[in-house]
Structure formats: structure tokens, C-alpha cells
């Protein structure tokens, strides 16, 4: 049996102070949800980013070592545009991230360090909807993040983290999935949209390698299209959608 598709999206929960976003690659959050991040940091909420890789396999014409340093710089700049100053990298290998206990442990450790109430990740499902296949890195990190939200709260799972001084944190109340084909909630993107465009534009080298379009046009068109489409299910305002799993 499939779940019925929710036609009207609900507002995201508001009663939280700290969020941690965990994704596979530099740019995942900028394509996915940085307009929401801008709105949240405006409200004084703390948000940190954790990236499983440095996106070193993302640019065909650039060897991975040089690419990693460049994409790390671009990611830090794009986070700063939406008010995020903490950006960490787990140094899993781009393109071949393995779902498993090593990944779950690294993400659980990050959750224990940052102690968020809200955890954000990118689409963990096989497709983006229809027949648009997702990448194995997104699936692995999305699934491991959903699992690690619980792992972080159990001191008997990964006891080595406790020995390193990372006490268990059972305070994650929601895991919100950006880019899901089955969203349940949304955030108004009106105030954050311009910064989201500038934030995506900080990945300039990546975008220039990806498209012949002018980067400014490409970034604005992409984010306008996705936030407008979501807005049709959220009172007509541009919006960022999430599939929210409660805990
Ligand atoms: Zn990605």
C-alpha cells in the first residue's frame, strides 16, 4: 500500500533552537533548502552543516585533490551567505559513500557534538520522484542520518564515542528531508530566496562546469522554479518543502 500524497503542506515545527544539516556533497543544501536556512538564522536559530565528502569527484576537468580544496572554500562561502559559520567535513569518499556503521557512527558523533533538536538531510529515496534516479551518495547519507538520529541517543550503540567524551544526545525530535518526492511540511522562502540564490552561486566553479547558462540565470531559475512549485501546496508563497519524520 502506498501512502496518499499530501496535497497541502503544513508549516514546519517552530519550537527548536538548534539544527544540524547532514548531506553528502557541497551544494546539496544550496540546491535543497538554503532559503529555509536563511529564514531560520534570521530568527536567531543556530544551524551547523556537516558534509560527508568534499565533493572531490564533482568536476570532470579538475583532479580530486584540487577539487576538494576548491569545493570546501565554495561551501564555506555559500554557508556564510545564509548565516551558517560552522561547516564540517567527514571525509568519506565522494561518489562511493558506503551506507553502514562507519557512516552512522560519524553522523551520530556529529549529532552528539552539536546536540540539535532538528536534523536536516537530503532525499534518501531511490528517486527524485517518477523515474529521476537519485545518487547512491544521497541515499546512503540520507538513510544513515535518519538512523543516526536514534544512534546518537543510545549510549550502548557506538560506546567508543562516549569514551571520546561524546555523551549520548536523545534530543533530536525531527529529521527533515529536503528534496523528497513525498514532502509533508514547508517553510516560507520569501525572505530567504535572494540569499539562497547567492548561496548557490558561491558554487560557481561547479555550476560553470555543469551548464552553458550564465550562473546567475541558472541559479535564480532553478530556485524560483522549485520554490514556486512548492508554493502551490503552501498558500501560494514560494516555499521549501521537507518530508518530516518525527521521533
Ligand atoms: Zn549531491
TrEMBL record:
Transmembrane segments: none annotated. One of its GO terms (molecular function) is hydrolase activity, acting on carbon-nitrogen (but not peptide) bonds, in linear amides. Pfam families: PIG-L. GO terms for biological process: glycoside metabolic process. SUPFAM superfamilies: LmbE-like. The keyword Lipoprotein does not apply. It comes from the Bacteria. Coiled coil: none annotated. InterPro entries: GlcNAc_PI_deacetylase-related (IPR003737), LmbE-like_dom_sf (IPR024078). Keywords: Zinc. PANTHER family: LMBE FAMILY PROTEIN (PTHR12993:SF28), N-ACETYLGLUCOSAMINYL-PHOSPHATIDYLINOSITOL DE-N-ACETYLASE-RELATED (PTHR12993). This is LmbE family protein.
